Amino acid sequence: MKVREASFSTAIFTLLVETTTSPEFVDITDKIVESLGDSEIKNGCAVVFSRHTTAAITIQENEPLLLNDMAMLLERLAPRNARYGHNDFSIRTVNMHEDECPNGHSHCQHLTLGSSETIPVIDGSLALGQYQHVFVVELDDDKMVPREVIVQIMGV
Amino acid sequence: MKVREASFSTAIFTLLVETTTSPEFVDITDKIVESLGDSEIKNGCAVVFSRHTTAAITIQENEPLLLNDMAMLLERLAPRNARYGHNDFSIRTVNMHEDECPNGHSHCQHLTLGSSETIPVIDGSLALGQYQHVFVVELDDDKMVPREVIVQIMGV
Amino acid sequence: MKVREASFSTAIFTLLVETTTSPEFVDITDKIVESLGDSEIKNGCAVVFSRHTTAAITIQENEPLLLNDMAMLLERLAPRNARYGHNDFSIRTVNMHEDECPNGHSHCQHLTLGSSETIPVIDGSLALGQYQHVFVVELDDDKMVPREVIVQIMGV
Prior knowledge:
The structure is a homotrimer. The first copy, chain A, is α+β, with helices and mostly antiparallel strands. Chain A has helices at about 30-40, 65-75, 105-110; strands at about 1-5, 10-15, 25, 45-50, 55-60, 115-120, 125, 135-140, 145-155. The first copy, chain A, starts with a strand and ends with a strand.
């Protein structure tokens, strides 16, 4: 056990993450490490938070065949071509926009993943295990603007 | 990047959330915003934590047809009428109470969702994206007493 | 609402968790409570973080039949004997080690669970509900070395 006691700091970084397809796993570990260095916070935690309901945060191994396996799992859990009320623009009235695309599957896939992960920070390093990489999981297509991910470092 | 350094505060709020059916998505965003205002904490994070194993926390879009799509996904993942050992009161011995109801599906659905989400707080606001709302997801029926959700604001 | 303002402390504990099979739910609640006591932190939060991509953290009820139901759900979501590119050692090139075992299902099951949970700490106690226990979920077989779980207590 190590106890640190000092005045508290918090640093906020907004990552802009470009995505091209879905499901797509974009490894943002290096950017989080860079943010941590810039924060000069040594002990505390890093909250990684997606500001989107069709882009999730997960921690997994960065092995390309596995990323494809996980993409196929997401498609099995909530197939793109299944029937979603959210996609029925003839009856839907809420949050309808000009450029609305059918993405019920994206939201449903997101539900099984989640919006945030919290990673301990110890002696200036993320406490990730050997195979752990942090990913933004893009679940929606044709995103013309980058996804916003907040990295918040808190501690001492 | 913004770094804030000051003495640390934590504020705890217990929300009592009434539910009527399952799966039911109850939007608690306004209550969290109100708690944040009362805390007078400006930079840090909000931990939203369900004190129940059959009521989860998720962040999603509040579009009624989508909430129904997600309810149907949960039913597909762990159908109410499938066979669960947890529901076999003839052999189960642990945590058996007088008013025990068969809710194996509720626990299994909860497993895919999770008990907490952590949301950054920046300049006195929750850093939620345009479509993000925080929900308690009721997965069990006939709850006579409200669900307890803890909102913890930490920071400076 | 209770607001506490004081100088901030963080304490780190690394739990070594022995596992024997998969999926296996190992209850680590007592060890977290013990860590909390040792930290002498009274108000804040506990981050529970798995350092593995095939061992997850979840909060559920410790009822043996239910743990078996949840193990069966994980097997249904990502069956051990399904086809995974991650298991095809004839084409895979990344992260191949001498003792590599086919565990695509373990990673996919982990994807639906997650790596961390954050639990509020109030007046020296974990704010767990009556039925909430914290589990490491072992998803991979034949682990010769214990799993590392970080318990980070932060607060005042």
